[in-house]
Every structure is written in structure tokens, then in C-alpha cells.
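Researcher: Good morning. I'm working through a list of sequences from a screen, and I'd like to move beyond sequence-only analysis. For each chain I'm collecting a predicted structure so we can compare shapes side by side. This is the next one on the list. No need for commentary yet; just the structure.
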Amino acid sequence: MSKPGQAAGAVPVLRADGPLLVFGGPYSNLEATEALLDEAARRGIPPARMLCTGDVVAYCADAVAVTEQMMRSGIAVVMGNCEQNLGTGADDCGCGFAEGTACDLLSRAWYAHATRSLAPAHRAWMRALPRRIDIDIAGLRLAAIHGGAAGGPGAINRFLFASAPEGTLAAELAATGADGVIAGHCGIPFTRVLARGVWHNAGAIGMPANDGTARVWCSLITPLDERRLRIEHVALRYDHARSAARMRAAGLPEGYAAALASGLWPSCDVLPPAERARRGQPLDPPAVTWSASGAAMGAAMGAAMGAADAPRLAG
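Model: Good morning. C-alpha cells for this chain:
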């Protein structure tokens, strides 16, 4: 990251001279977070080349333990809507769920649990997180954000899925002024190569991707040569049974506890029709090699999803 003392309000910059490990949504899932950190260490990827796209705290039981892990890790973290609202003491998670929907109702329980658990020091850390981090890699500038970019701070909880119209993603990318975007929030991994740029979402490590498997997702972005990258979605397995048991012991909603094993979200309220239709279909997003010209030289990922198991996060 850029050094302390940078101009107030300046976007921090992470300079990656090797593979960058990207993950979103730890969601208070201690077991998944520990598994990710162990695998990063085994691969020799230091915290200085890791990026979290936000929502450190959400559905699972261990809000304090996961927050403290991230606080001491040295990993760059983008502010998510959960950090924004927990940090300021807001009444709800600010997730963007329509009022009265199943997602909205379920969120009230885990948000109350997190609110009771977190201390002032945790909230202060959350408030201080940047809303954007720029990644300088292979001569390219990628803007890491949580939700959307267009429209200012209110875009933090914008859901942008693989099926979004090209024009929608292009407008969001243009609002950043960057070569590409690394985003979070939606919980399902995908990469879209656009006419001018790339939109990448690593998915979440704290909750499965609604694909009928217990796997959770992160990604590797590897610099190849000048203005050319390889983007690989990778799946991670962990002790989800232990995490679910901790949720049940804490009295958290059964729907999310069961989802850790079933891989199926308890509600699809936020999903567009294309993503709803793919519920329960195991993801197999191929790697893509992308250059700043906008041409995909590997597999065009777009909304591509298949039935075979994806590679695990392994060396």
C-alpha cells in the first residue's frame, strides 16, 4: 500500500509485483478465514499481496475473531456496507435488501449479533477503511471497490452480477477511471471482459456461491507482462460443519447455517433471473488472460458457469 502521509482523501495504492490473492465477504466465518490465510501462507503469498473487498462481518458467528484477524493481518481491506454501517452504529446492515424480504428479515438477527459483539476499537477500524483501493499491477490500474462506483457513496451496496448488461458495467467502470474493477458484495464469483476493460468479482469466502456445493471462492490475479493479466477463480474447502455449529450455538438463523453445507442460499431475493436459474448448479469458471486492449486471450468468462468441480486453492 502507499505510504502513510499521502494527501487526505487520496485513494490508497497497492502495488503488486506478483500474484495477488483476492477475496470478499469473510462474513464472520472464522474457519473459512483461517483456511484462506493458511493457504495463502502455503502458496507464499504475503499479506502485502492480498486484498479483501469488504464485508468482514456478516452472517456467521465470529464477528470479533474475524475482525481482529483482519485488523492484525496487514491485508488491504476495502470498506463494505457492513463495515460502513457497523462502524457508524446504523440500525441495519445497509446490504440493499428490499424491506420485508426474506433477506431483510434474516439479516436482522446476524446484524444484531454483530452489533452486540463488536467493541469501539473494532468499529473505529471499520470507519477508517477506504472505500476504494487502487491496484497497480503489470502497468495497469484496477479499482477495488465493494459494490458499484457510479453515484458516489450510495453505490457501496449496489448488486452487480455476471448477467448485468455490458453498458451497466461499462458505466460503472468508467466512473472509476481505471483499466478494470475488482468488486465484491454480490457473493458469486465472475469475470466479465468488456469492450474496454474488465470487471472481476472474486466471490466470498464466508458463504457458498448458491451453486449447491459447500465450496467458497477467492481468486488469483497474476501479472504476465506489460498490461496483461491472468485471472483465475479458485475454490476453497474448509470445516464448514464447525462453522455451522458455532452459528447454531449463537442462535443465528438456521437458513444461513444450513447453507454452509448445502451451498444454497435461504433466499434468492437479490438475484436477477439468470442467476436464479443457475441456483444449485456447481460453478466452474475458467481462467482468463486479459490485456488492456480488452481482448480475452483465454476463455471468455462472462456469465459462463459449468458443472465440473473448480480447482481448489492449492499450489
